[in-house]
Specification:
The protein is mostly beta strands and 271 residues long. The protein has no helices and 22 strands.
Length: 271
Amino acid sequence: MTPDLLALGTVGSGVFVCERSSGKWMQFTERDGLLMPSVESLCIVGGKLWIGFGDANTRHGGIGYIDWQTRKFVGLTPDLKVVRTSVQTDTYDQPPKARVVGLVYSGDALWLAAKGKGLQRFDLVQQTWDTATSDRAFNNKTEQAVSDGGNMLTSCAVNRDFIVAGTDRSGSHGSWDKYWGGLSYYSFETKSWQIVSEQQGLPNGYVLCVAAGEKQLWAGGRSFVVEIDPSRAKVTRIADLGRVWAHAIEVSKNDLWIGAGNQLFRVPRSN
């Protein structure tokens, strides 16, 4: 959302955009070139409406944008790539074919939470892609970046200091359960990663949404919402939601907005 544009993604009907100055609504579908009718994330950067696609049934997805000046869609679907005689269809240095469940912008980069692939960074100036996973950091560095869980990212958020990614712990891993899932964040200043899991105080590893304020991070998931101090990588406050799952968190100047179950909650940040 911008002062003049309101964009809504749908599961099956493409994207609806409202020009707030005129009150006019427009719909964009596959007839207008969209990769698929199911949209899981949106982000407006300059004159472009970036669209993260995803189909929960097929697990396919992709990325593209609508140039708002021309109203034309541009898809960034990658080509097949042959590496050591094997065809690789979704490599780390190209746009995703996985579901794009999170999409945020900071500085000169667009950040994508690609479910099943990892956290991707698209440099808008250099036009290059990079990916961080559970065994690979950016710039092809061998380091655990994203918390374990098969790179099953659920969300991402950004502020001036960090990019944050939430991970949904998938399945059961026996005695290793407490190490799986959670969230990860990358410091732009130190270029280093921190992981917050049950070891650092999360109630469980099922993180479905994340948010980033000026000094705090928040995460929500199965039966909880937590506040995290990124300077210590520790959970500082926990709200127990019982059987309710938190699926969305947004930060405003004075409040924290939480989507939990079928309800929306506004929590003053001073509390």
